[in-house]
Amino acid sequence: MTRLRGGAVVAAVVVIAVAGCKDQRAGGSSGPAPAGGGGAALTAAQSLTVKGRAPKTGYSRERFGTAWADTDSNSCDTRDDILKRDLKEVKFTGGTCKVSYGQLDPDPYSGKDVTYRRGRSLVDIDHVVALSDAWQKGAKYWDPSKRIALANDPLNLIAVDASTNRGKGDGDTATWIPPNKSYRCPYVAAQVAVKKKYGLWVTAAEKTAMEKVLRTCPGQKLPAGGNPTEAPARFHAG
Q1: Angle CA 217–103–191, to nearest 5
Q2: Contact 20, 38 (CB under 8 A)
Q3: Closest CA to 223 of 139, 138, 157, 148
Q4: Among 195, 194, 23, which Cα is nearest to 111's?
Q5: Mean of per-residue pLDDT scores for the chain
Q6: CA–CA distance, 52 with 106 (Å, rounded to integer)
Q7: Most exposed: 60, 103, 181, 195, by fewest CB within 10 Å?
Q8: 99 DSSP β-pair partners
Q9: Cis bond before residue 106 (omega within 30° of 0)
């Protein structure tokens, strides 16, 4: 779980298209673009490597670089990119990067409407695959530039209700799914997409939970888009 305040659009990602599961972000443009035919998410989940969860030893947020690095070089930090992408009625302060106001209408995790105002914590930017979960399932062994890429990849980020998000912690699909039932299929599909893109493994319980959710929406597509899996050269020294 990651808290956030702040928008510039990342062109590579658009709304999650849902087949079989209804995404209730009416009129919203949040989340990664779909790819593949119906059932692609379930097929991808079934292909994920299964291993045990490694120890959390050595994990810290800093192992994934400075928070909200501008890895796409658009002169806006990642948190503002995601706020601009996911919020409606967006207003800015001091240019076109810093989001000062917007509406999460509705929040995908809870289904309720949430107002974002800069400096208040009613909206978080969540890492769909939590960084500590990624650390225990492969990221510990990566080069720093790949960890930075994951932490700032729009495919792995979404604006959500802060209070609901805090109930997630660093849980995976086996331990937490959104209380908003209509968003569970897109949420699990997004976790699958991130883990497949970055080569992260899953536990047996996690894979079972993913398949259980995705079998309720057999036409669910797999999200796509986001940034490259390696941050630009200027981040490699991290």
Answers
A1: 35
A2: yes
A3: 157
A4: 23
A5: 87
A6: 36
A7: 60
A8: 92
A9: yes
Asked whether 26 and 92 are in contact (CB, 8 A), the reply is no
If you ran DSSP here, which 8-state letter would residue 189 be given? H
- The rounded distance, in Å, linking the Cα atoms of 158 and 31 is 7
Residue 233 pLDDT: 84
- pTM for the predicted model, two decimal places: 0.84
Residues 6+ apart with CB under 8 A from 220: 18, 19, 20, 21, 38, 39, 40, 41, 42, 185, 186, 189, 214
How far are the Cα atoms of 4, 58, 68, 87 from residue 187, in angstroms, in the given order?
Answer: 19, 28, 22, 17
Residues 53, 136 contacting (CB under 8 angstroms): yes
In whole angstroms, give the CA distance from residue 56 to residue 153: 22
36-90 pLDDT tens trace: 666 899 999 999 999 999 999 999 999 999 999 999 999 999 999 999 999 999 9
Q: Which residues contact 26 (CB under 8 A, 6 or more apart)?
A: 105, 106
Task: Name the token pair of 117.
Answer: 């105002």
Alpha-carbon gap, residue 68 to 140, rounded angstroms: 19
> Residues near 142 by Cβ (< 8 Å), separated by ≥ 6?
none
**CB contact set of 13 (below 8 Å; sequence gap of 6+):** 31, 32, 33, 85, 154, 155, 225, 226
What is the Cα–Cα distance from 6 to 105, expressed in whole angstroms? 16
- E strand intervals along the chain: 33-35, 88-92, 99-104, 114-117, 123-127, 157-161, 222-224
Q: How far is CA 39 from the centre of its chain?
A: 20
